[in-house]
Amino acid sequence: MKIITHFLLSCASLLFAGSVMATPVDTYEFKSVENQERALALSDQLRCPQCQNQNLVDSNSPVAKDLRLEVYKMVDGGKSDDEIINFMTSRYGNFVLYKPKLDSETYILWLGPFGLLILGLFIGFIFVRKQRIQESESTTLSTEQQAELDALLNNDKTIK
User: Fold this and answer.
1) What are the tens digits of pLDDT across the range 94-129?
2) Which InterPro entries does the entry mention (predicted)?
3) In sequence order, which residues have a C-beta less than 8 Å from that of residue 89 and are 6 or more positions away?
4) Which of 85, 82, 106 is nearest to 96 (CA)?
5) CATH of the domain at 28
6) How far apart, in Å, do the first and last CA atoms of the chain sit?
7) What is residue 41's three-state secondary structure?
8) For labeling, which of 54, 67, 112, 158 is most exposed (least CB within 10 Å)?
9) Is residue 102 part of a domain?
């Protein structure tokens, strides 16, 4: 009975251990809950300059830690979201944004996937059209081929 109890307790602790997560916000005291939520949302929109594929909240790099703290201080300081984003982009460029603004420098990011989709559809259309043309050409028989086919079919019927 003791073994079963220990086993169940171990399973339960493993189950609950996965749901416990520490966030970097725990170490910073915000002035209000709204500021905390706003700072987390902003940090979620900003990319870590060192990691490149993680936002500021998910990254453990020292640069991300410093930038998180900077964002938290700006939010508590009363700066607007646009002011914080402008500060970060002026310092690190558009790369720091997960969703960069639509301007002349980012047209390829926003319009590239649509261009590739159109190119793929065009190539698919050409391929299908070529296949249909080849199929229609190969199904028509000349009169000699038709006569030979009829002779073979008639010969097959007489054998049965």
Assistant:
1) 778 877 777 777 788 788 899 999 999 999 999 998
2) C-type_cytochrome_biogenesis, CcmH/CycL/Ccl2/NrfF_N, CcmH/CycL/NrfF/Ccl2_sf, For-dep_Cytc_NO2Rdtase_NrfF
3) 96, 97
4) 85
5) 1.10.8.640
6) 79
7) helix
8) 158
9) no
